[in-house]
Amino acid sequence: MLVVIANANVAGQTKKILFLGNSYTAANDLPKVVYNLALSFDDTIYYDSNTPGGYRLMNHATDATTLAKIREQDWDFVVVQAQSQEPSWQPSQVAKEVLPYAATLNDFIKSNNACTETVFYMTWGRKYGDKQNCPAWPPVCTYQGMQERLMTGYYSMAEQNNATLAPVGLAWKQAMDNDPDSLINLFSADNSHPSVSGTYLTACVMYATLFRKSPLGAKYFAGLSENDALFLQQVARDVVLNETYNFTFFDTCTSINYDLTWGSWFDKGNIAFAGFSWLADGAIHHFIDNSLNGETFFWDFGDGETSSLQNPTHTYAQSNLYLVKQSIGNPCFEDDALKLINVVVSSSKEISDAPAISIHPNPGKGIFNLSIRPKALQNDFYYKVFDLNGALVFEDKIINKENVSDHPIDLSALHRGIYQLSITTDEKIFNTTFVIQ
After folding, report:
1. Rg of the chain's alpha carbons, rounded to an integer?
2. What are 176-193's pLDDT values in tens digits?
3. What kind and span of H or E run contains 30?
4. What is the pLDDT of residue 33?
5. Quick one: which of 387, 360, 363 has its CA closest to 371?
6. For the range 157-162, what are the long-range contacts, defined as Cβ-Cβ under 8 Å and sequence gap of 24 or more?
7. Per-residue b/e over 20-50, b at no fewer than 16 CB within 10 Å?
8. 321, 357 contact by CB (below 8 A)
């Protein structure tokens, strides 16, 4: 049995975000939509923006307002959006007129605060391609062609600046690919700027990228129908965070073969993503680090033992469910991942000094039996129950005058979820993990 809890970074967060762009960011007030979306998950954003119409990266790189706003705060993120056409230009022109200014902006952002993450906001191809540049540059004559060129331009910005990529344009493509009847029009009347639906999808991608959390289930719909909003939330989740997402594209202009997955948006930058898998041989478990951007590692194996190795091996003493926690970090970001694993040790491999307590049935409905290895606890004792966030949710005392090994406990008042039961004595701490269904 395997229950994936996903990343443990689920509590309400507060982020400071600066948006730099032009009318694509200003349309429908994207920063405010991101703010409202985050608020629906009890997350808070303090934001500012500078979005003059038609601004290119070279304009922002020398704009007094842009530079002053960067210096105003120790921002968590600065979201940078280029003019809608410039990243799709011919590679030689992009190299000369776009990438140097992306680097200038990133350098200025980092000089203000080394831990501010630059996030390049990949925009979308125009609905019928770039008619202005089409005659001289045929790859942008269609939506598909322009989107591919934009993708390569923005990917280069992220790669060259050790930055994060917000794959908005690929989410737009995913939405249109999966809405063949065009029931949701992401474009405004000019077939370039976003409609309210387009801005909402963009905000969902931004939320997933910046908060590392799925936007699916948000109750803020920005005036859209609930069905439309939920569809766009799911698209954003699938493109930004779903491990099955994949976009492949061979760039004939540069002979680069792009094979992009959700990790492609983050692995060039600094945002930390915890994640791991394991191989089991009875009691022996080999844990494999699958994280992104981790430099330090800490493992809690759920039985009181820990490790600071990147890929540790751990031997469990007894068959049980164990909540394993991986914590990773770098100088600017940290993240946790939790997974519940079922350890099965054959009787021939059971270790004599097995853990002193267990709880069953596990999983259960709320009424459990606490089993204590004979002579492990001979006196009265308190037990405490903690949730995944480490909050104490229940505690009680067991009178153990007769030194019996089994004690019924009623936890039916708790919600469904994963919990840890802990008993502390003068000599040691006994922990066990259980699930309420």
Report:
1. 26
2. 998 766 689 999 999 999
3. helix 30-39
4. 98
5. 360
6. 157/80, 157/82, 157/87, 157/98, 157/99, 157/102, 157/120, 158/120, 158/265, 158/268, 158/269, 159/268, 160/99, 160/102, 160/103, 161/102, 161/103, 161/106, 161/118, 161/120, 162/268, 162/269, 162/270
7. bbbbbbbbbbbbebbbbbbeebebebebebb
8. no
**Pairing mode, if any, of strands 306-307 and 313-315?**
unpaired
Q: For residues 155 and 120, what is the distance between their CA atoms, to the nearest angstrom?
A: 8
Instruction: Give the count of beta carbons closer than 10 Å to the beta carbon of residue 66.
Output: 22
Report how far residue 395's alpha carbon sits from residue 356's, in angstroms, rounded to the nearest whole number.
19
Q: Where in the chain is the domain with CATH 2.60.40.10?
A: 276-349
Looking at residue 51, its amino acid is: T
C-alpha 327: how far from chain center: 14
Q: CB neighbours of 310 closer than 8 A, spacing ≥ 6?
A: 289, 294, 297
Helical H segments across 262-341, by residue range: none
How far CA 177 is from CA of 127, 166, 168, 172, in Å, comes to 13, 19, 14, 9
- For residue 175, what is the DSSP state? H
Name the residue among 227, 238, 222, 225 with its Cα closest to residue 173. 238
Structure tokens at 180: 């063949």
For residue 137, pLDDT over 50 is answered with yes
CB burial of residue 180 (10 Å; 0-12, 13-18, 19+): exposed
- Structure tokens belonging to residue 309: 């190795």
Nearest Cα to Cα of residue 186 among 226, 196, 178? 196
* Per-residue model confidence (pLDDT) at position 4: 27
| pLDDT at position 356 | 63
Q: Which amino acid is at 327?
A: S
In the chain, where does the domain assigned CATH 3.40.50.1110 lie?
10-265
- Domain formed by 10-265, architecture: 3-Layer(aba) Sandwich (3.40)
CATH superfamily of 276-349: Immunoglobulins (2.60.40.10)
266 and 206 in contact (C-beta within 8 Å)? no
Q: Please tell me the CATH code under which domain 357-436 is placed.
A: 2.60.40.3080
CA distance 324 to 289: 13
* Residue 378 half-sphere exposure toward CB, CA atoms < 13 A: 2
Cα–Cα dist 256/345, whole Å: 48
- What is residue 404's three-state secondary structure? coil
The Cα 179–Cα 185 span in angstroms is 9
pLDDT confidence of residue 387 = 77
Q: At residue 380, what is the residue type?
A: D
